[in-house]
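User: Could you go from structure to sequence for me? I need the amino acid at each position, not a summary. Structure tokens:
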């Protein structure tokens, strides 16, 4: 894939959220997006058929397989993968345009996708959401009542694999207390906004006066 690495001209930051199913990632991300006006959630592109209630351009960007493969070959995706016969990808032009405009971009992504993006963009901030324990994760999966026993066991097995990659992240947030986990995420976002690249891009006139 052909990609480019963000430079200090980007005023916004990029953050990746990785978590096993049932760790509370989506609830935390939705709460963070509600409280942080300058934060945008990356819109994934997929070739699968929209599910009932899903809206093109809101939940996903839906493309025909041929169009997806054409964009992939043109280097439009930071990362892409084929899952259960369908393609998924993260749009590079959309993310770049948001960061250039000063928005911070958050990606909900799996650990394989996070590894791909980290290789291309070393400055990306990787956040791993931890359940308080595997037992608590299993309890949450059962309480939400969305999966049969086979699916629950598959999700738990996948969680074990995902947790083995948690050390690759920059930050670990343990979602034992939802309120505290949300505060932790806000602190990480605030810290990312103070990193040298985005800060220099937001203050070009000041730096020029200082002769930097």
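Assistant: Here is the amino acid at each position, in order:
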């Amino acid at each position: 894939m052909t990609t480019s690495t963000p430079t200090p001209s980007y005023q916004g930051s990029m953050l990746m959220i990785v978590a096993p199913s049932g760790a509370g990632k989506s609830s935390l991300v939705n709460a963070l997006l509600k409280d942080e006006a300058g934060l945008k959630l990356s819109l994934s592109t997929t070739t699968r058929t929209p599910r009932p209630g899903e809206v093109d351009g809101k939940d996903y960007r839906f493309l025909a397989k041929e169009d997806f493969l054409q964009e992939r070959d043109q280097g439009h995706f930071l990362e892409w993968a084929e899952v259960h016969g369908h393609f998924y990808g993260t749009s590079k032009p959309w993310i770049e345009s948001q960061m250039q405009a000063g928005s911070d971009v958050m990606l909900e992504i799996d650990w394989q996708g996070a590894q791909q993006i980290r290789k291309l963009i070393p400055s990306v901030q990787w956040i791993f959401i931890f359940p308080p324990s595997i037992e608590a994760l299993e309890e949450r999966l059962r309480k939400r009542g969305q999966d049969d026993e086979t699916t629950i066991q598959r999700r738990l097995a996948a969680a074990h694999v995902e947790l083995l990659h948690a050390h690759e992240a920059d930050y670990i947030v343990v979602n034992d207390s939802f309120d505290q986990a949300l505060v932790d995420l806000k602190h990480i976002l605030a810290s990312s906004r103070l990193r040298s690249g985005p800060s220099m891009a937001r203050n070009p006139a000041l730096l020029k006066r200082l002769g930097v």
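One structural detail worth keeping in mind: Residues 1-8 have pLDDT under 50 and may be disordered.
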